[in-house]
Amino acid sequence: MLRYEHIEYLNFLFGIPVLIIAMLLYSKWKATALALFGDSRLIKELMHSFSKRRTQIKNILTILIFILLIIGIANPQVGTKMEEVKREGVDLMITIDLSNSMMAEDIKPNRLERAKLAISRLIDKLEGDRIGLIVFAGEAYVQLPITTDYSAAKLFLSTVSTNIVPTQGTEIAKAIDLSIQSFDMENAQNKAIIIITDGESHDEKAIESSEQANELGIFVHTLGMGLSKGGPIPIYNKYGNRTDYRKDRDGNTIISKLNEQLLQQIASAGKGTYVRANNSKAGLSTLFAEINKMEKKEIGTMVFTEYKDRFQLFIGLALFLLLTDLILLGRKNKWSNRINFYKD
User: What is the pTM of this model?
Assistant: First the structure.
């Protein structure tokens, strides 16, 4: 099994495109400056030893060095020994609504971001419990199979956005059904589902699915994201700037409101608890308290207990490429220049 000791450092990889763009802009600026300096043929003769290919190779080496250093600092670790570890906890499946209405800003900064922050804080409180993530809109998808790897749960949570679901809608029933299928019903662990949504749906099947879950011994809790007054649904451009609000066919701004009645019915059918979020609290703490009241049964899980660091490989390769970059000059060597001279 591969894991990273400091997985947060991998976020620096997002800076690689910035580095590439900076290199391209510098190359363009240099070409423009040379063009202003004088005749291109004369400049070519004066810079006879300049090698464009070697410059490109040095740029590639620089990018590879940065990538290897970042991975090395994150410290990849490989599991070398597995042991059965006894733990006490519950199996918890969190389902997150990714319909467009979750972008409404009646709860700051918006419903979805507030939900993600609350889930992240909930993960920090877990001890021995297993957690899984399901995202849904018009369809439901497993984002993270049930696991005790809380670092992985946070990593997958950070990638959640309304853009990752191809079909819009609010099919809560499909999220509950997929959650049931994702549980290992053969173990004796108590199980619970938390549905995080604004409930903008008239899906009566969701109540039936919640009842079916309860018949299997699974508690269904609901967390309503949104205020009673509701809020408009923003539209963003490709740069992430808000340009307008969603409108109906008559040109009126759509106001997304919390369907509190449906969420209360789903929680009641699943013998769970309904909590409404607001700007002062998200409500997951209340649900976590309810989950902690559940009996936590002991179960044995095979996990890796010994890991070996592998950062040396990446740091070593980065140093080798750095040495290569220092040795490799940006101009042609004398032997290459001599051949080109005789060709001329």
Answer: 0.64
- The CA-atom distances, in angstroms, between 150 and each of 98, 111, 284 are 21, 23, 17
Nearest to 272 by CA among 295, 292, 254, 290: 290
Written as one letter, the residue type at 144 is L
172: nearest Cα among 224, 130, 109, 228:
224
- Which ranges constitute the DSSP H helices of the chain? 16-37, 40-46, 52-74, 111-125, 150-158, 172-182, 205-215, 260-269, 284-292, 311-327, 334-343
| pLDDT tens figures, 218-266 | 999 999 988 888 888 888 887 778 888 888 888 888 888 888 899 999 9
Structural domains of the chain sorted by starting position, each given as residue range(s) with its CATH number in brackets: 2-75+310-343 (no CATH), 90-301 (3.40.50.410)
DSSP state of 50: B
Structure tokens at 265: 């019915």
Q: What are phi and psi of 97, to 5 degrees?
A: -75, 125
pLDDT digits (tens, 9 = 90+) for 286-316: 888 887 777 666 665 656 667 788 888 999 9
Question: The tokens of 99 are what?
Answer: 């319909």
Decide if 100 contacts 245 (C-beta within 8 A): no
